[in-house]
Each structure stands twice: as structure tokens, then as C-alpha cells.
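ok trying again, last paste got cut off:
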Amino acid sequence: MCGIVGYIGKEDAQGILLEGLKKLEYRGYDSAGIAVYGEKGVVVRKDKGRLSILEEELKESPLRGTVGIGHTRWATHGKPSKVNAHPQTDEQGRFIVVHNGIIENYLQLKEELLSKGHRFQSETDTEVIAHLLEELYDGNLVSTVQKAVANMRGAYALGVLSQMEPDKLIAVRLASPLIIGLGENENFIASDIPALLEYTRDILILEDGEMAVLTRNRVELMKVTGEPIARDIFHVSWDVEQAEKGGYDHYLIKEIHEQPRALRDTLDGRIDLESGKVWLEEIHLGRDALKRIERIFFVAAGTSYHAGLVGKQFFEKMLRIPVEVDIASEYRYRDPLVDDRTLVIVISQSGETADTLAALRESRKRGAHVIAITNVVGSSIAREADDVLYIYAGPEVSVASTKAYTSQLMAIYLLGIYMAQELGTQEEEALRQIVSSLQLIPTLADRVLDHEEKMKEIAAKIKDHHSIFFLGRGIDQAVAMEGSLKLKEISYIHSEAYPAGELKHGTLALIVENTPVIALATQEDIYEKMASNIIEVKARGAYVIGMGLEGNNDLVKSVDEALYIPRVHPLLTPILTVIPLQLIAYFTSVALGNDVDKPRNLAKSVTVE
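nice, full thing came through this time. structure:
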């Protein structure tokens, strides 16, 4: 979710690059930089922190030139710092690169380049690209970029500038957004439309596996293999605010739709495609250390706590080690039984949640090994944990968390599988099957999103009710809690989630005629039990919305509305199950006229206890 801009024309490049980057600040970033070609060749200026810091530096010593690239970085490889900021260059400064995404095989490429005498300055995978271009340069920048891309695996958007051919600007896209802006005697590249609206509304949208060669007077589109492409111009009619939201009405619905991409980014580079094994270079707990673990804690708050509830069930089934889940604000006040044989996994989107940070410190003080799952590189929790497993959800603007939650689940699954591999607690074939299923999740999430009109219809039917109940068993119960939280957060309707088996212990007293009940029934081994619970609430007059697996023809016979998710390994259903619940909450809030992105009384990151 970093921001890329590029310009080639006759105007001052520095001003255009900075203004473009300002329009992309909503994407989030931790450092910024630009490179401009002028009389002294290409000069790079970059720094850690806000764009305003860079802007002040450039006021004192501006870069003069009419060709350049710029970048705002959301750190993945390497902490936020001046040296890790983009643009990145080769050692000679001849090839300059800005990059969004992840190069999965960058370590292998780096080792090969080191063996050939290349010397690296940063911790980034992006610098590897610049050195690779230097190594492969054949006198033609276009063919060199094509050869470099052929050696790279991963997801990326690239902007490339070279001292050798400064009259060209190269753009490449693979699974990370990149667009081309068309002007009079000038052309642009950017990650997103808002960066360009001040200068042009005529856009070419790059597709996966495509590249563009920009000069002042021409844009040439082609496949990365060289075949030319013809593309219709897209004329933008949105205003700037709409453009920041990608044409969506709210950030929340945009972020719901970004989940397949976020899931792919969190997954990419962490599975060896040949062996089918999970590889987590960030985790330094070896087999011997893992064998000493006698108990595992998940500690988190809010939505992240619900991710921990899913983690408990997954870890216990995969590892056969007792797992507890604690609310961070309660954890350290109950004198938890934690010692050097305990693994504590703290989860926080922001990495700054005060209660979770306090729990981390308490755990380490008692001798536990702490792994953090977080979205923000360089955050307090990331700095203080023993190991960090980053999710790559990108910034969440909306207060209600969606893509961070599903990305947290993806990270939990990866960590659980990794530990099962190391400990040998599951047969290799069983692990191979679950890894294979995990790789399908981003594509299946796309399929779930195709049915959002159905969720809109359901929202219209439940929006005027005062109370709504969610029911589930097993891993579905954990998702029911997250679905209930989303609904109450943004619709302000009273909502509760209950274990379906607890109906007769009080909950049935709250079910009256037409009370909406959302019943999750994706676990086939306990489906008959769940079906009985659905019949119980139906008998009391409930309006039941049931969710099950595709092909379950019995579900539709016992509920008022049936929703289905694609079939997947039963332990992995939560990522798919929660998406319809997010959509129902969103459309209910919209129907009620609420401020969807900024619900009353709530903040994005709770940084006080």
C-alpha cells in the first residue's frame, strides 16, 4: 500500500512528485523520497517520517529537472529508516527504483549478486532490483527490465529510472496497482488515481504482467515479454475524495474489497511452492526451543482478540498444546501463569495498543518468548517482541477493522502450520493438504465478494430491529463474535454472539417473534447439532439467516435466508465466513445513514489503558 508517482515532461518534476505523494498519504507510510534527473544526473533525496520532513529539506536545496520518480514507503523488508526509504539504487547510482509489493526470492537473488561483487546498503528487497538491473544491463533499458522481471518472483509495481537512458520512465505491474496518466508533452505514473487528478484525467490502467515505456511524447504498452498492447483510455469523472476511495462510497467497503489482495500479500513468499511447506524467516524459535513450550497464550483486544479465539482452536488441533486466549486489558491484572516454557502471541493491527503492549512487557518479564502479529513495521509492539510476524494488509482508514482481521487470521494459520512442521505434530500429507487449501483462500475470498448484493438485501430486512443475535459452534462461534462486533460498531444495533449450545441457559428468553438470528453452520462434523439449535430459535419465531458450505442443501430448508461460502478445509472457514458478516454490517450502517468510517465514540487505535 505504498505510494508511487513518476513524471516525465517539461515542467518541474520535484513539485509534481511531492504533490502526487501528498494525494497518496491516505494509503499510509513511514518514509518518503524522490529522485530527479537534472544537470548533475539523477539525485535522490529521502528521509524517514512524514512527507513534510522531506519537503522542508527540498525547500532548502531543491532538485531541478523534468524527469523523476517518488515514493512513500510502508515498511515490509527492513525497519523504517532513511537508508531503507525509496528510491533505491545500485551501488553506482545508475539504476533507480521505486517499488510496491514483495519480491519473494530476493534473498536468493541477493546471494547471487553478492557472489558477483555487488555491495548493498539497505535491508530492502527493492535494492536487489536496482542491482539486478545493473548486472543485466545490455545497453537497452526496456529489455534489461524485462530480463530482470523474468528473474523475480512475487507481487510488485515498479517505477524505474536510469542515468543511462534518462529520456525514459519504465513502469511494471504484477498484482500491485499501477496506472499511467496521459498529458500534453508529459506523462505520469502512479499507484492510484488521486495522485494524478490535478494534472490529467486520461488514464491507462496497467494489468498484471504488463509494462509501460514513457517518454515525454509517447506511452508504449507491452507485456513484460515484449508483445505490444492496445488499451482504451479511461477518463476519470470522480472527484479527489472519491478517487482516494477507489470509487467506493466509503473506506470500509473499499477495505472489505481489498481483502483478497491483503491475504495474498500476507501469504506471498511464505510458502515453498515445491515442498508445500511454510517458511517463516522472521521466527527464530527452532525445534528445540519449540519442544520446551508447554502452554501458549494469545493476548489481544477487540477484533484482534477474536482472531486469537480462532487461533486457539487452530493451534490446539495442529499442535496438541494447551492454548489460552486473554483480553489484553485483563491479562496482567490476574497474575497469569506464564514462565520460560510459555509462548505468548500478541496481536495488534497498529502495534501501539496500550493494553497489548503492557501484556507483552509483562510476559517478557516473566520469561516468556513473545511473538507479535502486527501490521505496522517499527511500531512499539514490533520493536519489543522477540519475533514479529507482519501482516501486509496495508493501512486501514476506517475505524472498523476488516482486512487486518482476515490478514491476522492468515498469519495465525501460517504460524500454526510452521510450528506443526517443526514439532512433527501432524502427518506431512495432512499439512500439505491444509497448505494447499490455504493458498486458495484469496481466490475464494474474491468469490464471496461477488455475492454482496445478497448481503445488501439482508441488511434492508434487519436494519430496523433493536436486537440481533449471532450463533455458532466451535470455530464458527469465534467468527460469530467478530460478526456481532462489526454490526454493533457501525450500525449501533444491539448485537450479541452466543455459543449455540448455550441457548437453553438463558438466550432463548430473548428470542421473540421476528428477532433476527444469524446462525453460522460451516463445520460439518457438528452440523446436526447446529441444525437442532436453528430449529429451536425458529420455533420461537426467529427470522434466521443461516450460513453454510456450498452444496449443503439441507440448510435452505431450515432457515429464512441461506448464505453459502465455498468449500475449504474446515479450520480455514473463518476468513471466508466473516466477509458476508462484514458486508451485512456495512450495508446495515449505510441504510441507517450512519458515519460508516468514523462510528461514534470509537477510535482506530486505543493507545491509552
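cool. The chain has a mean pLDDT of 92. The two ends are 30 Å apart (CA to CA).
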